[in-house]
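Repro:
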Amino acid sequence: MRSLVFGVAIAVLLLGSAAVQPALAADAKCEPDKVAAKYPSLAGKTIKVAQDGEGPPYTFRNPEDFEKLIGLDADLVRATMACIGVKFEFKTGAWSGLLPSVIAGQTDLMWSNLYYTPPRAEQVDFVTYLNAATRGMVHKGNAKKIQSLDDACGVRAAAGLGTVEEAMFRGLSDKCTAAGKKAIELVTYPDRPSGIRMVQNDRADLLMGDAGGLGFFIKQYPNELESGYVIVTNYKVGPGINKTMPELRQAVFDAMTILQADGTQKSLMAKYNVDPELARPVEMHTK
């Protein structure tokens, strides 16, 4: 397996404007009892949080209590809402339908390993706190010898519907044909387990996705799956928030800044085996 750095063609998807807010005071702390004064529109409200519940190590069902979601994102939601001082409820569904539910106002925010991109930020606001790493996962034995994106031309590739990996594969396929190579045979899936099964059942040669999430599945199925390569990216990760709720955006930003400073984020990343070095300063993005 080789570790790579994303090229210019992918980096162009990341260009955007970050509205970085002034830092909170060094002694800033959670003040849940002051929610009505700090964020009046949130007082007494139950925040609807969209997660897919099938994306370990970020959000998945507790094996000991199937009704409870756990994972880095699920636990950060709990810590953030407790810090703000509001109630919340998880609304689960297929990953590809979560962001549309926020845009339509059916939920208030999507907190489910969502990558910030400028096109997405035209429809929802973001609070980012994490850098992403992307993994190319293959069937055990890597018969096609896929060790980098350069090896992807002509293979059967799987990507989540509406993800940055889908857009990346489509752009890369165009480059393959322009160079006289075979196009990528792209298939999409609605949720991570469906994509995993495509590789397990030899319906896809390559699946691209979050390094931590795919690493979780490789550990679960070591005789069926392996890692072809890892790409270190500049993708920023964080919840997408309905644009009609600026106080929720500000509240999440304030809370995450506190939780990052007091070590809560780092502790939860270590708990779920997400590299703490991927943490990045908290930022707000409105476009």
